Protein backbone atom coordinates (compact mmCIF):
# COMPACT_ATOMS: atom_id res chain seq x y z
CA UNK A 1 0.00 0.00 0.00
CA UNK A 2 1.36 3.39 -0.94
CA UNK A 3 1.59 6.07 1.77
CA UNK A 4 2.62 9.70 2.16
CA UNK A 5 3.96 11.62 -0.81
CA UNK A 6 3.90 8.59 -3.09
CA UNK A 7 0.19 7.97 -2.49
CA UNK A 8 -0.69 11.65 -2.97
CA UNK A 9 1.30 11.81 -6.21
CA UNK A 10 -0.45 8.73 -7.56
CA UNK A 11 -3.86 9.97 -6.46
CA UNK A 12 -3.54 13.33 -8.22
CA UNK A 13 -1.67 12.07 -11.29
CA UNK A 14 -4.24 9.30 -11.80
CA UNK A 15 -7.23 11.56 -11.17
CA UNK A 16 -6.08 14.31 -13.52
CA UNK A 17 -6.06 11.82 -16.38
CA UNK A 18 -9.86 11.81 -16.42
CA UNK A 19 -10.34 15.51 -17.17
CA UNK A 20 -9.83 15.49 -20.93
CA UNK A 21 -10.97 11.86 -21.27
CA UNK A 22 -14.40 12.66 -19.97
CA UNK A 23 -14.59 15.82 -22.05
CA UNK A 24 -14.12 13.84 -25.25
CA UNK A 25 -16.26 10.92 -24.10
CA UNK A 26 -19.10 13.31 -23.17
CA UNK A 27 -18.83 15.00 -26.54
CA UNK A 28 -19.17 11.72 -28.42
CA UNK A 29 -21.65 9.93 -26.16
CA UNK A 30 -23.99 12.88 -25.52
CA UNK A 31 -23.56 15.35 -28.37
CA UNK A 32 -22.79 13.28 -31.44
CA UNK A 33 -26.52 12.55 -31.74
CA UNK A 34 -27.22 16.28 -31.27
CA UNK A 35 -24.67 17.07 -34.00
CA UNK A 36 -26.35 14.58 -36.33
CA UNK A 37 -29.94 15.73 -35.71
CA UNK A 38 -29.54 19.46 -35.10
CA UNK A 39 -26.45 20.37 -37.17
CA UNK A 40 -26.01 17.84 -39.97
CA UNK A 41 -29.77 17.30 -40.27
CA UNK A 42 -31.04 13.87 -41.27
CA UNK A 43 -34.37 12.33 -42.18
CA UNK A 44 -36.35 10.11 -39.80
CA UNK A 45 -35.31 7.01 -41.74
CA UNK A 46 -31.60 7.92 -41.59
CA UNK A 47 -31.89 8.76 -37.88
CA UNK A 48 -33.50 5.40 -37.12
CA UNK A 49 -30.76 3.63 -39.07
CA UNK A 50 -27.99 5.56 -37.29
CA UNK A 51 -29.61 4.99 -33.90
CA UNK A 52 -29.76 1.26 -34.58
CA UNK A 53 -26.13 1.26 -35.74
CA UNK A 54 -25.08 3.10 -32.57
CA UNK A 55 -26.84 0.52 -30.43
CA UNK A 56 -25.39 -2.48 -32.29
CA UNK A 57 -21.90 -0.94 -32.40
CA UNK A 58 -21.96 -0.32 -28.64
CA UNK A 59 -23.11 -3.88 -27.98
CA UNK A 60 -20.42 -5.29 -30.30
CA UNK A 61 -17.76 -3.15 -28.69
CA UNK A 62 -18.95 -3.98 -25.19
CA UNK A 63 -18.33 -7.67 -25.78
CA UNK A 64 -14.79 -6.79 -26.87
CA UNK A 65 -14.07 -5.22 -23.47
CA UNK A 66 -13.35 -8.47 -21.56
CA UNK A 67 -11.03 -9.54 -24.42
CA UNK A 68 -9.17 -6.26 -24.01
CA UNK A 69 -9.06 -6.95 -20.28
CA UNK A 70 -7.29 -10.24 -20.95
CA UNK A 71 -4.80 -8.51 -23.25
CA UNK A 72 -4.00 -5.88 -20.61
CA UNK A 73 -3.74 -8.46 -17.80
CA UNK A 74 -1.33 -10.49 -19.92
CA UNK A 75 0.85 -7.54 -20.94
CA UNK A 76 4.42 -7.63 -19.63
CA UNK A 77 6.56 -4.61 -20.51
CA UNK A 78 9.13 -2.31 -18.98
CA UNK A 79 6.34 0.31 -18.73
CA UNK A 80 3.93 -2.01 -16.92
CA UNK A 81 0.74 -3.52 -18.28
CA UNK A 82 -1.51 -0.44 -18.21
CA UNK A 83 0.43 2.48 -19.65
CA UNK A 84 1.24 1.08 -23.14
CA UNK A 85 -2.44 0.45 -23.95
CA UNK A 86 -3.48 3.68 -22.28
CA UNK A 87 -1.19 5.63 -24.60
CA UNK A 88 -2.06 3.78 -27.80
CA UNK A 89 -5.78 4.02 -27.03
CA UNK A 90 -5.83 7.73 -26.25
CA UNK A 91 -3.95 8.65 -29.46
CA UNK A 92 -6.20 6.54 -31.69
CA UNK A 93 -9.45 7.63 -30.04
CA UNK A 94 -8.36 11.27 -30.32
CA UNK A 95 -8.00 10.95 -34.10
CA UNK A 96 -11.29 9.08 -34.56
CA UNK A 97 -13.24 11.55 -32.39
CA UNK A 98 -12.19 14.37 -34.73
CA UNK A 99 -13.25 12.35 -37.79
CA UNK A 100 -16.72 11.75 -36.31
CA UNK A 101 -17.34 15.51 -36.17
CA UNK A 102 -15.70 16.31 -39.50
CA UNK A 103 -17.86 17.82 -42.21
CA UNK A 104 -17.51 15.40 -45.13
CA UNK A 105 -20.55 16.82 -46.97
CA UNK A 106 -22.08 13.34 -47.25
CA UNK A 107 -25.78 12.44 -47.24
CA UNK A 108 -27.99 9.37 -47.10
CA UNK A 109 -26.29 5.99 -47.40
CA UNK A 110 -22.85 7.57 -47.88
CA UNK A 111 -23.10 9.35 -44.54
CA UNK A 112 -24.40 6.18 -42.86
CA UNK A 113 -21.42 4.18 -44.19
CA UNK A 114 -18.92 6.83 -43.07
CA UNK A 115 -20.53 7.07 -39.66
CA UNK A 116 -20.59 3.29 -39.19
CA UNK A 117 -16.89 2.80 -39.91
CA UNK A 118 -15.63 5.55 -37.63
CA UNK A 119 -18.13 4.90 -34.86
CA UNK A 120 -16.90 1.30 -34.67
CA UNK A 121 -13.29 2.49 -34.67
CA UNK A 122 -14.10 4.97 -31.93
CA UNK A 123 -15.41 2.21 -29.69
CA UNK A 124 -12.44 -0.08 -30.26
CA UNK A 125 -9.82 2.61 -29.68
CA UNK A 126 -11.60 3.99 -26.62
CA UNK A 127 -11.73 0.48 -25.13
CA UNK A 128 -7.93 0.24 -25.23
CA UNK A 129 -7.59 3.37 -23.15
CA UNK A 130 -10.60 3.01 -20.89
CA UNK A 131 -9.91 -0.50 -19.62
CA UNK A 132 -6.20 0.07 -19.05
CA UNK A 133 -6.88 3.40 -17.30
CA UNK A 134 -9.55 2.30 -14.83
CA UNK A 135 -8.05 -1.13 -14.12
CA UNK A 136 -4.95 0.71 -12.87
CA UNK A 137 -6.97 2.25 -10.01
CA UNK A 138 -7.33 -0.80 -7.69
CA UNK A 139 -3.62 -1.59 -8.09
CA UNK A 140 -2.73 1.73 -6.42
CA UNK A 141 -3.97 0.74 -2.94
CA UNK A 142 -5.58 -2.09 -0.95
CA UNK A 143 -7.00 0.28 1.65
CA UNK A 144 -10.74 0.90 1.10
CA UNK A 145 -10.61 4.50 2.30
CA UNK A 146 -7.60 5.26 0.10
CA UNK A 147 -9.41 3.69 -2.85
CA UNK A 148 -12.38 5.93 -2.08
CA UNK A 149 -10.05 8.94 -2.06
CA UNK A 150 -8.54 7.95 -5.41
CA UNK A 151 -11.95 7.18 -6.89
CA UNK A 152 -13.51 10.36 -5.51
CA UNK A 153 -10.77 12.57 -6.92
CA UNK A 154 -10.91 10.79 -10.28
CA UNK A 155 -14.71 11.22 -10.40
CA UNK A 156 -14.33 14.91 -9.42
CA UNK A 157 -11.92 15.53 -12.28
CA UNK A 158 -14.13 13.45 -14.59
CA UNK A 159 -17.16 15.51 -13.67
CA UNK A 160 -15.23 18.72 -14.16
CA UNK A 161 -14.51 17.53 -17.67
CA UNK A 162 -18.09 16.40 -18.22
CA UNK A 163 -19.75 19.58 -17.00
CA UNK A 164 -17.30 21.91 -18.71
CA UNK A 165 -18.49 20.32 -21.94
CA UNK A 166 -22.17 20.31 -20.93
CA UNK A 167 -22.02 23.98 -19.93
CA UNK A 168 -19.94 25.20 -22.86
CA UNK A 169 -20.91 23.06 -25.85
CA UNK A 170 -23.84 25.23 -27.01
CA UNK A 171 -22.32 28.73 -26.61
CA UNK A 172 -18.80 27.76 -27.69
CA UNK A 173 -19.82 25.77 -30.79
CA UNK A 174 -22.11 28.65 -31.77
CA UNK A 175 -19.26 31.14 -31.29
CA UNK A 176 -16.75 29.02 -33.18
CA UNK A 177 -19.35 28.38 -35.87
CA UNK A 178 -19.88 32.11 -36.36
CA UNK A 179 -16.14 32.67 -36.66
CA UNK A 180 -15.59 29.70 -38.99
CA UNK A 181 -18.66 30.24 -41.14
CA UNK A 182 -20.73 27.18 -40.20
CA UNK A 183 -21.98 25.36 -37.12
CA UNK A 184 -20.49 22.12 -38.49
CA UNK A 185 -17.03 23.66 -38.32
CA UNK A 186 -17.85 25.04 -34.88
CA UNK A 187 -18.45 21.49 -33.61
CA UNK A 188 -15.30 20.24 -35.32
CA UNK A 189 -13.01 22.93 -33.87
CA UNK A 190 -14.55 22.45 -30.42
CA UNK A 191 -13.83 18.70 -30.62
CA UNK A 192 -10.21 19.38 -31.63
CA UNK A 193 -9.76 21.55 -28.53
CA UNK A 194 -11.17 18.79 -26.30
CA UNK A 195 -8.93 16.19 -27.92
CA UNK A 196 -5.80 18.27 -27.22
CA UNK A 197 -6.82 18.65 -23.56
CA UNK A 198 -7.37 14.88 -23.34
CA UNK A 199 -3.92 14.08 -24.69
CA UNK A 200 -2.19 16.50 -22.31
CA UNK A 201 -3.86 15.22 -19.13
CA UNK A 202 -3.51 11.55 -20.08
CA UNK A 203 0.22 12.08 -20.34
CA UNK A 204 0.20 13.31 -16.73
CA UNK A 205 -1.08 9.87 -15.69
CA UNK A 206 1.31 8.01 -17.98
CA UNK A 207 4.44 9.82 -16.79
CA UNK A 208 3.73 10.47 -13.10
CA UNK A 209 1.81 7.46 -11.72
CA UNK A 210 4.07 4.84 -10.12
CA UNK A 211 2.45 1.45 -9.58
CA UNK A 212 3.19 -0.26 -6.24
CA UNK A 213 3.58 -4.07 -6.00
CA UNK A 214 0.40 -6.12 -5.53
CA UNK A 215 -0.34 -9.13 -3.35
CA UNK A 216 0.23 -12.29 -5.33
CA UNK A 217 1.29 -10.35 -8.38
CA UNK A 218 4.64 -12.03 -8.87
CA UNK A 219 4.89 -14.67 -11.57
CA UNK A 220 1.14 -14.92 -12.00
CA UNK A 221 0.37 -17.06 -15.07
CA UNK A 222 -1.23 -15.39 -18.08
CA UNK A 223 -5.00 -15.28 -18.30
CA UNK A 224 -6.57 -17.50 -20.97
CA UNK A 225 -9.98 -16.99 -22.56
CA UNK A 226 -11.24 -19.83 -20.37
CA UNK A 227 -9.77 -18.06 -17.36
CA UNK A 228 -11.47 -14.83 -18.43
CA UNK A 229 -14.86 -16.53 -18.58
CA UNK A 230 -14.23 -18.12 -15.19
CA UNK A 231 -13.22 -14.77 -13.67
CA UNK A 232 -16.38 -13.11 -14.96
CA UNK A 233 -18.94 -15.84 -14.34
CA UNK A 234 -17.76 -17.41 -11.08
CA UNK A 235 -17.25 -14.17 -9.18
CA UNK A 236 -20.81 -13.80 -7.91
CA UNK A 237 -20.18 -10.38 -6.37
CA UNK A 238 -18.84 -9.09 -9.68
CA UNK A 239 -22.02 -10.27 -11.40
CA UNK A 240 -24.25 -8.59 -8.81
CA UNK A 241 -22.29 -5.34 -9.14
CA UNK A 242 -22.43 -5.55 -12.93
CA UNK A 243 -26.21 -5.95 -13.07
CA UNK A 244 -26.81 -3.14 -10.56
CA UNK A 245 -24.37 -0.83 -12.38
CA UNK A 246 -25.92 -1.59 -15.78
CA UNK A 247 -29.44 -0.69 -14.68
CA UNK A 248 -28.20 2.47 -12.99
CA UNK A 249 -26.16 3.60 -16.00
CA UNK A 250 -29.02 3.04 -18.46
CA UNK A 251 -31.22 5.30 -16.35
CA UNK A 252 -28.52 7.91 -15.73
CA UNK A 253 -27.35 8.20 -19.35
CA UNK A 254 -30.91 8.25 -20.69
CA UNK A 255 -31.76 11.24 -18.50
CA UNK A 256 -28.61 13.21 -19.32
CA UNK A 257 -28.88 12.49 -23.06
CA UNK A 258 -32.26 14.22 -23.24
CA UNK A 259 -30.92 17.45 -21.69
CA UNK A 260 -30.47 19.62 -24.79
CA UNK A 261 -33.78 18.50 -26.27
CA UNK A 262 -35.64 19.20 -23.01
CA UNK A 263 -34.54 22.82 -22.83
CA UNK A 264 -34.95 23.39 -26.55
CA UNK A 265 -38.40 21.89 -26.98
CA UNK A 266 -39.96 22.28 -23.51
CA UNK A 267 -38.46 25.57 -22.31
CA UNK A 268 -37.94 26.79 -25.90
CA UNK A 269 -34.56 28.18 -24.80
CA UNK A 270 -31.55 25.94 -25.31
CA UNK A 271 -29.23 28.56 -23.78
CA UNK A 272 -30.78 27.81 -20.37
CA UNK A 273 -29.22 24.35 -20.65
CA UNK A 274 -25.75 25.77 -20.02
CA UNK A 275 -26.89 27.52 -16.83
CA UNK A 276 -28.59 24.32 -15.66
CA UNK A 277 -25.45 22.33 -16.41
CA UNK A 278 -23.27 24.65 -14.31
CA UNK A 279 -25.62 24.24 -11.34
CA UNK A 280 -25.57 20.48 -11.68
CA UNK A 281 -21.83 20.31 -12.25
CA UNK A 282 -21.05 22.31 -9.12
CA UNK A 283 -23.53 20.20 -7.10
CA UNK A 284 -22.04 16.92 -8.25
CA UNK A 285 -18.44 18.01 -7.67
CA UNK A 286 -19.31 19.27 -4.17
CA UNK A 287 -21.01 15.93 -3.47
CA UNK A 288 -17.86 14.05 -4.49
CA UNK A 289 -15.71 16.34 -2.36
CA UNK A 290 -18.00 15.67 0.60
CA UNK A 291 -18.12 11.90 0.07
CA UNK A 292 -14.95 11.01 2.07
CA UNK A 293 -16.34 12.96 5.07
CA UNK A 294 -19.64 11.03 4.93
CA UNK A 295 -17.81 7.76 4.30
CA UNK A 296 -15.85 8.08 7.54
CA UNK A 297 -19.07 8.47 9.52
CA UNK A 298 -21.55 6.18 7.79
CA UNK A 299 -21.42 2.68 6.26
CA UNK A 300 -21.70 2.37 2.50
CA UNK A 301 -25.19 0.85 2.66
CA UNK A 302 -26.48 3.93 4.48
CA UNK A 303 -24.89 6.25 1.92
CA UNK A 304 -26.39 4.27 -0.97
CA UNK A 305 -29.88 4.31 0.56
CA UNK A 306 -29.70 8.05 1.22
CA UNK A 307 -28.55 8.70 -2.35
CA UNK A 308 -31.47 6.70 -3.75
CA UNK A 309 -33.94 8.74 -1.67
CA UNK A 310 -32.50 11.99 -3.07
CA UNK A 311 -32.77 10.64 -6.63
CA UNK A 312 -36.39 9.53 -6.23
CA UNK A 313 -37.41 12.92 -4.84
CA UNK A 314 -35.46 14.70 -7.58
CA UNK A 315 -37.12 12.74 -10.40
CA UNK A 316 -40.61 13.32 -8.99
CA UNK A 317 -40.03 17.09 -8.68
CA UNK A 318 -38.51 17.16 -12.18
CA UNK A 319 -41.47 15.36 -13.75
CA UNK A 320 -44.22 17.45 -12.15
CA UNK A 321 -42.48 20.84 -12.01
CA UNK A 322 -43.64 23.75 -14.16
CA UNK A 323 -41.31 25.41 -16.66
CA UNK A 324 -39.51 27.18 -13.85
CA UNK A 325 -35.75 27.13 -13.41
CA UNK A 326 -36.01 27.19 -9.60
CA UNK A 327 -37.97 23.92 -9.48
CA UNK A 328 -35.90 22.31 -12.24
CA UNK A 329 -32.67 23.41 -10.60
CA UNK A 330 -33.71 22.01 -7.21
CA UNK A 331 -34.68 18.71 -8.82
CA UNK A 332 -31.41 18.58 -10.70
CA UNK A 333 -29.35 19.18 -7.55
CA UNK A 334 -31.09 16.30 -5.75
CA UNK A 335 -30.67 14.02 -8.76
CA UNK A 336 -27.02 14.67 -9.41
CA UNK A 337 -25.88 14.75 -5.78
CA UNK A 338 -27.43 11.30 -5.37
CA UNK A 339 -26.00 10.08 -8.65
CA UNK A 340 -22.51 11.33 -7.73
CA UNK A 341 -22.56 9.24 -4.56
CA UNK A 342 -23.82 6.14 -6.37
CA UNK A 343 -21.31 6.42 -9.24
CA UNK A 344 -18.44 6.53 -6.75
CA UNK A 345 -19.87 3.76 -4.58
CA UNK A 346 -20.24 1.47 -7.58
CA UNK A 347 -16.66 2.19 -8.63
CA UNK A 348 -15.28 1.08 -5.25
CA UNK A 349 -17.72 -1.86 -5.10
CA UNK A 350 -16.27 -3.03 -8.39
CA UNK A 351 -12.70 -2.57 -7.12
CA UNK A 352 -13.43 -4.67 -4.03
CA UNK A 353 -14.68 -7.58 -6.13
CA UNK A 354 -11.10 -7.98 -7.42
CA UNK A 355 -9.83 -9.17 -4.03
CA UNK A 356 -13.01 -11.20 -3.52
CA UNK A 357 -12.38 -12.96 -6.84
CA UNK A 358 -8.67 -13.33 -6.04
CA UNK A 359 -9.51 -15.16 -2.82
CA UNK A 360 -12.30 -17.27 -4.30
CA UNK A 361 -10.72 -18.18 -7.65
CA UNK A 362 -7.02 -18.07 -6.81
CA UNK A 363 -5.89 -15.34 -9.21
CA UNK A 364 -6.03 -11.57 -9.52
CA UNK A 365 -7.64 -10.09 -12.65
CA UNK A 366 -7.80 -6.29 -12.40
CA UNK A 367 -8.26 -5.58 -16.09
CA UNK A 368 -10.72 -8.40 -16.77
CA UNK A 369 -12.75 -7.29 -13.75
CA UNK A 370 -12.63 -3.61 -14.66
CA UNK A 371 -13.55 -4.46 -18.24
CA UNK A 372 -17.03 -4.78 -16.77
CA UNK A 373 -17.14 -1.00 -16.23
CA UNK A 374 -16.73 0.05 -19.89
CA UNK A 375 -18.85 -2.96 -20.89
CA UNK A 376 -21.64 -1.61 -18.70
CA UNK A 377 -21.10 1.99 -19.79
CA UNK A 378 -21.33 0.98 -23.45
CA UNK A 379 -24.32 -1.29 -22.99
CA UNK A 380 -25.98 1.44 -20.94
CA UNK A 381 -25.17 4.04 -23.58
CA UNK A 382 -26.40 1.70 -26.33
CA UNK A 383 -29.76 1.25 -24.65
CA UNK A 384 -29.94 4.95 -23.71
CA UNK A 385 -29.09 6.03 -27.28
CA UNK A 386 -31.79 3.72 -28.54
CA UNK A 387 -34.33 5.17 -26.12
CA UNK A 388 -33.38 8.73 -27.07
CA UNK A 389 -33.21 8.15 -30.83
CA UNK A 390 -36.50 6.29 -31.08
CA UNK A 391 -38.19 8.76 -28.72
CA UNK A 392 -37.12 11.66 -30.95
CA UNK A 393 -38.95 9.98 -33.83
CA UNK A 394 -42.01 8.72 -31.89
CA UNK A 395 -42.56 12.02 -30.08
CA UNK A 396 -42.26 13.97 -33.35
CA UNK A 397 -39.24 16.04 -32.30
CA UNK A 398 -37.04 15.04 -35.25
CA UNK A 399 -39.71 15.99 -37.80
CA UNK A 400 -40.50 19.42 -36.32
CA UNK A 401 -40.02 22.28 -38.73
CA UNK A 402 -38.53 25.67 -37.92
CA UNK A 403 -40.75 27.41 -35.35
CA UNK A 404 -43.02 24.38 -34.80
CA UNK A 405 -43.81 23.38 -31.21
CA UNK A 406 -43.90 19.94 -29.65
CA UNK A 407 -47.41 18.58 -29.00
CA UNK A 408 -48.69 17.70 -25.53
CA UNK A 409 -48.53 14.02 -26.48
CA UNK A 410 -44.94 14.40 -27.69
CA UNK A 411 -44.01 16.22 -24.50
CA UNK A 412 -45.45 13.45 -22.32
CA UNK A 413 -43.61 10.79 -24.34
CA UNK A 414 -40.28 12.59 -23.95
CA UNK A 415 -40.74 13.29 -20.22
CA UNK A 416 -41.70 9.66 -19.55
CA UNK A 417 -38.69 8.34 -21.44
CA UNK A 418 -36.41 10.89 -19.77
CA UNK A 419 -37.61 10.54 -16.16
CA UNK A 420 -40.08 7.75 -15.33
CA UNK A 421 -38.26 4.90 -17.08
CA UNK A 422 -34.83 5.88 -15.65
CA UNK A 423 -36.32 6.20 -12.17
CA UNK A 424 -37.71 2.66 -12.35
CA UNK A 425 -34.36 1.24 -13.51
CA UNK A 426 -32.39 3.02 -10.77
CA UNK A 427 -34.74 1.81 -8.02
CA UNK A 428 -34.50 -1.80 -9.29
CA UNK A 429 -30.69 -1.42 -9.33
CA UNK A 430 -30.76 -0.46 -5.64
CA UNK A 431 -32.97 -3.41 -4.70
CA UNK A 432 -30.56 -5.85 -6.38
CA UNK A 433 -27.60 -4.34 -4.57
CA UNK A 434 -29.28 -4.46 -1.15
CA UNK A 435 -30.33 -8.08 -1.51
CA UNK A 436 -27.23 -9.59 -3.14
CA UNK A 437 -24.06 -7.57 -2.44
CA UNK A 438 -22.19 -8.93 0.61
CA UNK A 439 -18.75 -7.25 0.61
CA UNK A 440 -19.17 -4.98 3.61
CA UNK A 441 -16.28 -3.09 5.15
CA UNK A 442 -15.78 -5.91 7.67
CA UNK A 443 -15.98 -8.63 5.00
CA UNK A 444 -13.35 -6.85 2.89
CA UNK A 445 -10.89 -6.75 5.81
CA UNK A 446 -11.35 -10.51 6.26
CA UNK A 447 -10.60 -11.03 2.55
CA UNK A 448 -7.37 -9.00 2.69
CA UNK A 449 -6.19 -10.85 5.81
CA UNK A 450 -6.87 -14.20 4.12
CA UNK A 451 -4.93 -13.15 1.00
CA UNK A 452 -1.94 -12.04 3.09
CA UNK A 453 -1.94 -15.34 5.03
CA UNK A 454 -2.10 -17.26 1.77
CA UNK A 455 0.87 -15.32 0.35
CA UNK A 456 2.94 -15.74 3.52
CA UNK A 457 2.07 -19.43 3.88
From TrEMBL:
Q: GO biological process: any one?
A: carbohydrate transport
Give the InterPro entries listed for this entry: MFS_2, MFS_trans_sf, Na/Gal_symport
Which SUPFAM superfamilies does its entry note? MFS general substrate transporter
Which key words are in the record?
A: Membrane, Symport, Transmembrane, Transmembrane helix, Transport
Question: What Pfam families does the annotation carry?
Answer: MFS_2 (PF13347)
Residue ranges of the TM segments? 84-102, 108-129, 150-172, 187-209, 238-263, 275-295, 302-320, 326-354, 375-400, 412-433
Q: Which Gene3D superfamilies match?
A: MFS general substrate transporter like domains (1.20.1250.20)
List the GO cellular component terms.
plasma membrane
Q: What are the recorded GO MF terms, alphabetically?
A: symporter activity
Q: NCBIfam families, per this entry?
A: gph
**Name of the protein in its database record:** MFS transporter
